[in-house]
């Protein structure tokens, strides 16, 4: 009867001649591949992307300051690209204000209009004591001025949906192509009464209403955007029985 052989091994992952012999005869498993090449490859790709995107977010004045540092042809190409982006933003900025709507006009002003652009609808509180609602009304005005290619509408919740619970206000509806793409019930999903303009910009980013390199964001870094956008896209819906009016 063959008896198992106990082979002395100090460190099965060490690069030694003894370990190579043991692996060859199957006494210890093959050493797992080193992650170093993958890490180096990821770092190289990160450096490449950082170099390619080094001019992202810079305005025309900042580009002019880089004339001595950057290749003239590359800088001119990028300047032309930025001018085209600014022209596109200007031509698509047709709203630039908050639109009060009435229930009879919802189908026209929201559902049908969403086939042309993103529509953000704010259902406000019927009571003046709702701090979150008052905060969001102010942010809504700033967003409307800043992102004129997105239509921002506003209606009192109880005038839009009879019996809509006050505790569910404010509610944000994001509409596109005739459908409600996302709804946010109160600001608990964001930062409550500390919700800022930037937090709502993250919502716009998350649903695709604006892009990461949109110059209107006017922020040097958005390190938390990728994770935040994923959360916005994939976070749980806050639907309940009262929200069934939108089905």
Sum this structure up briefly:
The chain is an alpha/beta fold and 247 residues long. The chain has nine helices and five strands.
Topology (elements, then pairings):
Elements: H1 17-24, H2 36-52, H3 60-65, H4 72-92, E1 98-100, H5 106-112, E2 119-124, H6 131-146, E3 151-156, H7 157-160, E4 171-176, E5 179-185, H8 197-207, H9 225-234
Parallel strand pairs: 1-3, 2-3
Antiparallel strand pairs: 2-4, 4-5
Question: Main attributes?
Answer:
single chain; 247 residues; alpha/beta; Glutaredoxin; five-stranded mixed beta sheet; 9 helices; elongated; disordered C terminus
Describe the structure.
- With 247 residues, the protein is of the alpha/beta class.
- The protein has a domain at 98-210: Glutaredoxin, CATH 3.40.30.
- It is 40% helix and 11% strand.
- It is built from 9 helices and 5 strands, in the order H-H-H-H-E-H-E-H-E-H-E-E-H-H.
- It has helices at 17-24, 36-52, 60-65, 72-92, 106-112, 131-146, 157-160, 197-207, 225-234, and strands spanning 98-100, 119-124, 151-156, 171-176, 179-185.
- A 5-stranded mixed beta sheet has the order 1-3-2-4-5.
- Helix 8 crosses helix 9.
- 19% of the residues are buried.
């Amino acid at each position: 009867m063959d008896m198992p052989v106990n082979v002395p091994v100090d460190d099965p992952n060490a690069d030694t001649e003894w370990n190579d012999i043991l692996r060859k005869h199957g006494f210890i498993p093959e050493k797992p591949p080193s992650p170093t090449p993958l890490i180096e490859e990821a770092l190289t790709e990160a450096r490449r992307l950082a170099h390619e995107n080094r001019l992202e977010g810079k305005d025309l004045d900042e580009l002019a300051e880089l004339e001595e540092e950057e290749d003239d042809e590359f800088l001119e190409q990028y300047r032309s690209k930025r001018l085209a982006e600014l022209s596109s933003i200007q031509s698509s900025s047709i709203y630039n204000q908050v639109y009060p709507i009435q229930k009879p006009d919802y189908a026209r002003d929201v559902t049908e209009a969403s086939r042309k652009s993103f529509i953000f609808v704010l259902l406000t509180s019927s009571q003046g004591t709702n701090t979150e609602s008052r905060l969001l009304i102010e942010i809504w005005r700033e967003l409307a001025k800043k992102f004129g290619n997105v239509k921002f509408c506003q209606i009192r919740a109880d005038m839009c949906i009879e019996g809509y619970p006050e505790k569910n206000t404010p509610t944000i509806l994001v509409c596109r192509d005739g459908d409600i793409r996302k709804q946010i019930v109160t600001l608990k999903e964001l930062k409550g009464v500390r919700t800022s303009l930037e937090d709502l910009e993250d919502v716009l980013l998350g649903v695709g209403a604006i892009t990461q390199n949109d110059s209107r964001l006017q922020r040097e870094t958005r390190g938390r955007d990728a994770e935040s956008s994923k959360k916005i896209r994939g976070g749980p819906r806050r639907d309940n029985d009262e929200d069934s009016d939108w089905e």
